[in-house]
Queue: 2 jobs
Job 1
Amino acid sequence: MYADIIVDISHDKLDKTFQYQVPAALAERLVVGMQVNVPFGRGNRLITGYIVNLTDTAEFDTARMKEIHSVAEGKVPIGSRMIRLASFIRANYGGSMNQALKTVIPVKESVKAREKKSIHLNIPKEEAKQLLSEFEKKHAAARARLMKSLIEEEIIEYELVTGKLNISGVVLRYFEEQGFIRTEREELYRNPVKEQEREELRKTLNQEQRYITDCILDDYGRGVYKTYLIKGITGSGKTEVYLSVIEAVLSQGKQAIVLIPEISLTFQTVMRFYKRFGDVVAIMHSRLSKGERYDQFERAKKGLIQIMIGPRSALFTPFPNLGLIVIDEEHEGAYKSENVPRYHAVGVAKELAALCNASVILGSATPSVDSYYRALRGEYRLLTLNERAAVDAALPDVTVVDLKEELKNGNRSIFSRKLQELIKDRLRKKQQTMLFINRRGYFGLISCRSCGHVIKCPHCDISLTSHKNNRLVCHYCGYTTAMVQTCPQCGSKYISALRGGTQMVEEAAVRAFPEAKILRMDTDTTKGKDGHEKILAAFAAGEADILVGTQMIVKGHDYANVTLVGILAADISLHAGDYRAAERTFQLLTQAAGRAGRGSERGEVVIQAYDTENFAIETAAKQDYDEFYNQEILYRTLLDYPPVSNMLLVKFSSRYEERLIKAVNTVKITKENVTIIGPCDAALYKADDIFNKVLYYKAEAYETLTGIKDELEQFAKDNDDFQYVSVQFDFNPMNAY
Ligand code: ADP
Ligand code: ZN
Ligand code: ZN
């Protein structure tokens, strides 16, 4: 047996492994991730290294290959834990060991650290308040926003001011010149609030919150480390529960990782953690350079911070004594990596927790079907919050409008009469409206505008999409049929591929409501650093009457003045062409509806749809999660979709179409109790001159599928047809391919 060893992981040596022979005496003991002593260099000096792979194949002449000297004794070091995690990721989600290592270990890069600055209020609060009301009178929105935040916080880190608060350099210079603020350097991680203030900020937990916190901490005290699912509507006080549990965990000398989808990582959320815990909090986000990320991780290793908040990648913070992992909004698609290795943060968090004796808390208002299924089966402990924690927050009124009826009544506008009426009402009252278009699934979907009928695959119950050659195709099984000219349901000729987008909605809104100020948010308007955050901040500050956008607008900020939410074609995402479509639609609608009426004013929601009787629309309108879940899990059970069964997508790609076809057709891996679907063309069959085909495997046990992955990898390695064909894996995919 041979071992591939990385001798130093504190530098960028991940690409370089050295192979050593495994002496017979050690063969039984060695596992991937273990630390060993090896002779190194010409002098054969003994140094330590990590085993990243064990194999039967020698990479070079064994006569010249050195032997591992011994196992390095002592406590399991962090590096070793990360390598075990990498090996878990590689085994369960595919990709190479190198890709997995690069995922879990940040690479050191010698970049000059950006200067850390913070902004301090430099005048008495009374004066600041007077200035604030002047700015407000003059409609100087950015100045007002900055002054208001400074009155609340007094010290704000520079990055938050320019990023999350969307304050330009011009405004900051003006404030400095006037002496309203002063800038201090290298003080970023200072505690922004005073000790006694922090005490006052602590809420007395209500009965439900207390119960949940006690459950988790009782287990913790007895050395029982579980995964908990907290299901509680937005505003029910989940974050307050996380804060309490984290506090208890910290008091035992352990650390915590808090995952939050990047888009929800707003100024408000971050401040809550800073205020409660002060300078032991660190934040990770995708805009940090590799070097900055590395620095953050070094601070964690040295014990300078105790809490890391961030998206998916914050999971790999090398805390010496990790005690808790919180995953907020656990249903979010962003927790699944879009690049190889396509790991899911929840799966990796559970493995990491098992390696460190840590607990995992998952939280959501609309738990993923997967997590809820596991919770109901006892794999997770289910804990619920049923009441809103703040007294004045009422749930919104929801109306469902039938778009078929609108067309029948001669309304060809994209806004129903009800929605138009309500928007005008809000414009009069100087309240804000959000218009949400459900863009996902628009691509190629064929639907009837008269009856709402959508053409589906007879084998998979997944909507067909139109392709260039006038044919309709199923992305799962490859079934094709000719494009229809009239609706098979009602005979109408108004059947075609759907079109539409935020820009079209914006234009329609400008025409319908000429007096309104309208902001649009989509991938075009949010380019650049913090683009989406800036638009949201501007809207939150009251700089527009209507915000038009896609899924992006339903997350993040609290908008006290938004009292109307319009969802334009709510059922479109039901036809996104994958088995999670209903789940995503339900979650989106519930979240979008939750945006209305966050302040004292009661909110209204208008859901426009063709298929108003679809259960995902109906249950979202009633905000009834359990009813949604019960129907959805029935469908998953009937069709053997996850979480009842497991699914592996294999994507074959090549620049050469013929080679691709030949290679895919040679794959003959079959197994008992495994269903194979395909191969067929990917939704994007040809993209960037690369051809793509997909193949699905379904099996009850996840391990069956990882076995198939291993076999397929080996098969592709040994088979010449695969020379110019790459193979990628996605376990329980979140999207259509
Ligand atoms: P969630 O995370 O479930 O959306 P939060 O923890 O953010 O809920 O709480 C929603 C609002 O209610 C916040 O403004 C929070 O400060 C407040 N809140 C939470 N718990 C309590 C409590 N026990 N007493 C009073 N207010 C609370
Ligand atoms: Zn029809
Ligand atoms: Zn099909």
Note: The CA atoms of residues 400 and 607 lie 5 Å apart.
Job 2
Amino acid sequence: MIVAVLLIYLVIIIAVATVIDARHVRFYMSGSDNVTQEYGTTFKDPGIYAVSTGKLFGEGNRQLEIKTEGTVNTEALGSYTIKYGVRYLFRDYSTERHVNVVDTQPPVIELKHKEGYEASWMTGYVEEGYTASDNCDGDLTAKVIRAENEDKIIYTVTDSSGNTATAEREIQYIKTEPRIVLYGDENMVVTASAGFTDPGYSATDGAGDDLTQLVQVDSNVVAYLAGDYRIVYTITNELGNSVSAVRNVTVIPANRPDVVTPDTKTIYLTFDDGPGPYTGKLLDVLAKYNVKATFFVTAANPKYYDMIAREVNEGHSVGVHTYSHNYKSIYSSEEAFFEDFYAMQDVIYEQTGCYTNLYRFPGGSSNTVSSFNPGIMSRLTKALTDMGYKYFDWNVSSGDAGETTRTNVVVDNIEAGCRGMKASVVLQHDIKDFSVNAVESVIIWGLQNGYTFRALDMTSPDAHHGVNN
Ligand code: ZN
């Protein structure tokens, strides 16, 4: 009984003492409760212990058992909490430590170097390569920003935590610009002709390599028109820098004899579109009266090509009319025109051994059938003149091109047209029998009336229509 009472007292005393003592748990933490931990390093808890303590009896000297909760993963950025708990006298006590895993390491940029590489003027610097890696983000090569200037390249990369790395590369350039050498004269003077032949050029770079193939040629030379032109030869490198050389080309008109105005009334009989089946008969008539005429020939009837030789051999003039007589083709471009023109010159050369300086435009220089190509007649009349050719239209029409098919009307037209004229250039076609048949009457009339018959040549008076296109 007494024991029981004593026990009760003891419990009460302990309880009172405990309440008065207010025993509780105190933690002693080494290090900060807010730790910054570098990414990828090993986290080691700085330590902690706990003891009981109270107002009356002070701290106990026995370390209490601590239960730790929470882990720190230093392979993942973020905030971690470690919780330390102690159970003491039926109560739970706890404290926390915060650990922030951070990345403060900048990425690493590595520059590659190719053995013996040299940057040339032509290519500029060609990147040899680089990599960027980060302890946290891994491969950052694709995020590298490259800033290139004259002598160096600066590479910059920033990781996801905002850490920036830079690297710098010095560039050794072969900076010597290539040299473009022009063959022939830098200032050329040439006579108008169908085509201009560049005397050539070459280019070498500072290292002596041949860059001729890389030269861009920009020429505005129009070889068949007198004028001042420029050819610019340029090499452009991959940075957009250029080196140029310039050739000036002056195209001058060909020398031409002065026009001699005949002192007697003169008739120039001209025949287009031959030779043909009636040309031989015509030449016989002309020979009979020793009258010279002019033939503007075509390639329409190869069977009669030998008549061209006969025309020249018998003292007549031969001029180019056209190879094809196809307006759409001839007047489509200068190139097409000259192609046709020279094709006919070749036929004439084959027959006579000579080229001719005389020309008659299909449709005449005043034609509007060419108006599908605006200005072509203005350009062609100037071109032929600059090149030293002489083109003739006519000032007397025989009417044999559609107006009539009767010989006596052709005769009347020609006589009426020539009457009172100092110099008549008569248009006929020797592929038309009825027109050829008119010639003898015209000759007889002309000779009886004081006219001289002549063949056209470079000194003959112009018979130019107004150019309408
Ligand atoms: Zn014609």
Note: The pocket of zinc ion is lined by residues 272-273, 321, 325, 362 (CB under 6 Å).
